[in-house]
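so my prof wants the structure for this chain in the C-alpha cells format not the other one, which i didnt know existed until like an hour ago. anyway here's the sequence
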Amino acid sequence: MCGIAGIVYKEAAGDVGRALLRMLGGCQHRGPDSTGLALYGDAEGDAEGGTLRLRLFLDADLGRRSETWPGRLAAAADVLTSHGFDIRSQSGRDDFARIDGMFHGDIQRLSYAVEELEGVEIFSAGHELEILKDEGTADDLDARFGASTFRGRHGIGHVRLATESDVNPSTAHPFWAYGFTDIAIVHNGQITNYFKMKRLLEQRGYRFRTENDSEVIAVYLADKMQRGVPMDEALEQSLTELDGTFSFLVSTPEGIGYAKDPIGAKPMVVCETSDYVAVASEEVSLQRLVGSSRIETQEPYPGTSRTWSRSMPAGSVSAR
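here's what i got, hopefully its the right format
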C-alpha cells in the first residue's frame, strides 16, 4: 500500500512543493517508509540551448563508507566533464547534490557513464524536472530539502510502504526514466509481468538501477514517447501491455497523466477547481490541499487513462 499525488496549475505557477507535501501528509499512513516529489519549474534559460540540472545521490548503500561526500561529488563531476557536461554550479550536503550546467550530448550515454561510479546515482536529469526523495515522512523531506518553497506549474509525489525491495533513497519514488530527460512516475500497485517487460527493454539497450517494478514503468513510457507516441496514447497502451493491479501517474514538462488498471483495485480520486487539477490516492489528501472537508471529487473508472496539460491558455487544462 502506497500513496500517490499530483497537481497541475491552470495559471502561471503555484506553490507546487507545498501543495504536494500537504497531500502526501494526508496519506502518509499509506507509506511511512519514504517520501518523494518530482517537481517541474520553468526551465532556466533556453532548454534547447542545453541547460540541464542533475540531482545526485552519492551513496546508494553501495559506495565506500570511508569515502568523503566531497570526494564522491568530485568523482561524479570528473565523469560529467569528461562526457561534455559544462558544469556551471554545484551544491549539496550529506548524500545529496545538485549540479547545473550545459549539455548537448546523449543523456543516456552520460547517465550510464555516471552509473559506473560506485555509490553514485542520478535521481533526475532535466531542463525543468527535479526529484527530491529520501527515507522518512513528508515533513522530513521538507526539512532536508526545503521542498515547500518550490514554485512551479505541476508535479507528482509518493509515499512508500516497502513490500518488494529495501527501504533506501534509491528505491523511493518518484522514479526518473533512467536515460531520458524530464520524465518521472509514481506508482501504487504491482506489475506482474515486470520481468518480461524489463528483459524486453534491456534488449533495446536500456539499463535499470533497482529491482523495483515501478522503474520499468518509467522507462517503458519514456521509450514509447521517444519513438513518437503521445503521452495519452502511451498511457492507453499501458492498460493492455502492463499486467497487474496498479494506479500510476507520469509527469513530463507538458503535464501529468494517469493509468488505472482494468481491475481497479488501487484507489484514485480527482478534484478540479478554478486554479488546478489535483489527483491523489485518497480524498483526505485533497481535503488537506483544499482546506475543507467538503469538496467535489470523482473517481476514475477502472481501465482508464487521462492526461492534463499545462500548455492550455490560463484558466483551462486539457484532458484526454
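also thought this was worth mentioning. Residues 312-320 have pLDDT under 50 and may be disordered.
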